[in-house]
Amino acid sequence: MSCPPFxxxxxxxxxxxxxxxxxxxxxxxxxxxxxxxPSLADFTPAVVRDDAALAAxxxxxxxxxxxxxxxxxxRSAKKINKxxxxxxxxxxxxxxxxxxxxxxxxxxxELFIVSRRGVAExxxxxxxxxxxxxxxxxxxxxxxxxxxxxxxxxxxxxxxRCGDALDALGFTEE
Length: 174
Known about the structure:
The strands form two sheets. Strands 2-1-3 form a three-stranded mixed sheet. Strands 4-5 form a two-stranded antiparallel ribbon. Helices cover about 35% and strands about 15% of the residues. The two termini are about 45 Å apart. The chain is of the alpha+beta class. The chain has five helices and five strands.
């Protein structure tokens, strides 16, 4: 074969052993040697084992079901079209509010897939509930969330979070 090994299709696995005898050896890394490759640890994120933080996040994760149900109800009532068009206020027990306060607001925006979120303590109702409102601001053309645009001077057409991400990628507008 005249093409280099990285051009060959994985379908040629067994044929490549004939063309490249080192591909069947365990000690020689090869593009076609499936025994050598990434391990499970390469795909597992490094998480600090902090039982208090995990317990706090478990209580917040339980709120996700309540928020998702409220977003579906708001969609059915035609208050919003997509969850990113929503701003949610979660009314929860004081201990859940304390747990939620230990995380950045961006965690909840990503977890609930909404543009904004708020957490308020329960005062009158015994169960957790969610108020779904229309998001304020303009729609970011990159992430589609409703936020204030122009937070990053280098990228005035997108929200600050997307502008910072574009800066990290080295993207410049021309």
